[in-house]
Amino acid sequence: MDPDTFRSDIGVDVYWRRRLTALIAVLIVVAVVAWACSSSGGPQDVQAAQASRTGSPGPDPLLAALPTVTVTPTPSQKNTESASPSAAAPTPEPAKPSPPPKRPGGVCETSDLVLSLQADGEVYGAGDLPRFFLTLVNTSKVMCVADVGPRSLEIRITSGNDRVWSSSDCVSGETENLRRLERGIPYVQSIEWDRHRSATDCQAERLTARPGTYVATVRATGMKSRKAVFHLR
């Protein structure tokens, strides 16, 4: 065909556009065929390939040849463990029996009594007689009986190591004085000192106490009050 005739019938641009379109169509067909061939194997082939690459190794022939050993505890071992002293539970100590309940009217126990002594002053001039107030309180839950006589509850006055006077010296007649003490109700006794010394020898002369500092306390079996300090002028 004459080139001039070709240029006259269709333009050069139209010619090359047709050629480009045909080339693109061929490439599309080739791509479709290639995709169809690659997907024909399916996911099963991919999984099979992965399994062939990551499959677990077979057993080691050296380990398979070794004998299997099973350890079973013997009956003697079980009996020894069960009879071990460390495994035995500790034996609980028997509970201590509770003391019997206190009955009203019994003798007061020392642990249930509170004993105190108080003077009515601190300084006594010439001729003034010191007076003391003895107090005994029952703290138990029931009423009890206590001896508040002068020999059971002794008021003693001292000056340093000198025993000056005692309420139990030269006591005659009935000395026992039983009193019923209700819970929390104090028994109060007032005693006056004549400022004279006393002694166990009732025949001895009773001398007048000198001016100075003195200490008074009340005593009983297993009990003693706090000190009451006072001065004589």
Task: Describe the protein's architecture and organization.
It is built from five helices and twelve strands. It has 233 residues and is of the alpha+beta class. Strands 3, 6, 7, 10, 11 and 12 form a six-stranded mixed beta sheet that branches. The protein is rod-shaped. It starts with a helix and ends with a strand.
> Secondary-structure element sequence?
HHHHHEEEEEEEEEEEE
Number of strands: 12
Q: Which regions have little confidence, pLDDT < 50, spanning 5+ residues?
A: 1-9
* Rg, Å, rounded: 60 Å
Helix proportion of residues, in percent?
25-40%
H/I helix tally: 5
Give the N-terminus to C-terminus distance in angstroms.
Answer: 167 Å
**What is the averaged pLDDT score?**
78
Approximately how much beta-strand content do the residues carry? Answer: 25-35%
How would a crystallographer describe the biggest sheet?
A: 6 strands, mixed
